[in-house]
Fold this sequence. Notes:
The protein has 210 residues and is of the alpha+beta class. The chain is 18% helix and 33% strand. The chain folds into two domains: 4-89, RRM (RNA recognition motif) domain (Alpha-Beta Plaits, 2-Layer Sandwich); 98-184, 2-Layer Sandwich (Alpha-Beta Plaits), CATH 3.30.70.
Amino acid sequence: xxxxxxxxxxxxxxxxxxxxxxxxxxxxxxxxxxxxxxxxxxxxxxxxxxxxxxxxxxxxxxxxxxxxxxxxxxxxxxxxxxxxxxxxxxxxxxxxxxxxxxxxxxxxxxxxxxxxxxxxxxxxxxxxxxxxxxxxxxxxxxxxxxxxxxxxxxxxxxxxxxxxxxxxxxxxxxxxxxxxxxxxxxxxxxxxxxxxxxxxxxxxxxxxxx
Length: 210
């Protein structure tokens, strides 16, 4: 059972004492890990409780509700995906820097995505797929670092519900451009080779169906 929570959108000057004072009302705390060297406005930490019940209670009571002094916005709080050693969250430089984001509202603009995802790190590139069917809008967000991409994926997948969308976003690490996504479950994927008669070339057509 999960005993560790991720706490994001913290003020950069946050201390262990401040976090302990805020979260120990939910139960005994075993450990607090504050990530060092975060960019301005991107500070995050792990809080590990003695019991899963305390971790769940803390998550429910504080996610997007708790705003600490000096923070620009309320904290993002979730049960940590990795329940082991905090060092395990370090990501290889060769890991993906791009995430796929699906279930976006139709007509979403680049600035809206940039505002939502830049809190997890510096964004190198944004691509919003044009011509999507209603209710099937998707985009790619490419970060400067793999760790920022991993953090954004964990923080938003199934949790971020953007205004105008009928359901929370699906977010997955893009392993090879359009080819593979981790942490996404598609009910059906059709891949076909179609020959372009006009140019006598082969086209790989990929279509996803919910």
